[in-house]
Amino acid sequence: xxDRVLAAAGMTHSDAKRDGHRPRGPIxxxxxxxxxxxxxxxxxxxxxxxxxxxxxxxxxxxxxRFGTALFEGRLVTPAMLARMTEPRVAMxxxxxQYGYGTEIVSGREGRSIFGxxxxxxxxxxxxxxxxxxxxxxxxLSNPTGGAAPVADAWRDLLLRSIAPAAKP
Length: 168
What we know:
By secondary structure, this protein is α+β, with helices and mostly antiparallel strands. It has four helices and eight strands; from the N terminus they run αββααββββββα. The protein has helices at about 1-5, 60-70, 80-85, 145-160; strands at about 30-35, 40, 90, 95-100, 105, 110-120, 125-130, 135-140. The strands form two sheets. A six-stranded antiparallel β-sheet has the order 3-4-5-6-7-8, sandwiched between helices. A two-stranded antiparallel ribbon has the order 1-2. β6 (about 110-120) and β7 (about 125-130) form a beta hairpin. It is globular and about 45 Å long.
């Protein structure tokens, strides 16, 4: 993963983490809101090292580099990206569909947005790539679920800013 994905995407401040891994730099402390309404640190919780469910580390800038590398064909061929971003299954109650490893949203003016959201206690992540322009939105947070509301707000602003001008 480090060689074939992270390095190929130019993600110089990210790591898939392996046993014996030492962080490349300062790591944000994660926080989670308990059912009792108390915020607590999540330092002791660990996702499996380098698994699809987490365990890696990245910066928001590197996450954006990943989205750009996908769009530019540096990680998969354009034909494979088209297959990955073809809607396959509706995600109930979300307005999204799932492709091969991607979530797909139909945006305004016929735009398509693909990416993925995820999280773990004390971690939130959202990556979106806007087609056909190739704009990339990457949001990371250290409270559980913190990335989605920020990404939602930025998505609305971005779609309004790239909408075609109204005709007189």
